[in-house]
Amino acid sequence: MNLMLMGLPGAGKGTQAEKIVDKYHVIHISTGDMFREAMAQETPVGLKAKGFIDQGNLVPDSVTNEIVKERLAQSDVFQAGYMLDGFPRNLDQAKALDQINQDLNLNLDAVIDIQVDKNLLIDRLSGRFICRDCGATYHKLNNPTKVAGICDRCGGTDFYQRDDDKPETVKNRLDVNIKMNTPLIDYYQKAGVLHQVNGAQEIDQVFVEIDKILNAIN
Ligand code: AP5
Ligand code: MG
Question: 22-36, pLDDT tens digit by residue?
Answer without folding.
Answer: 999 999 999 999 999
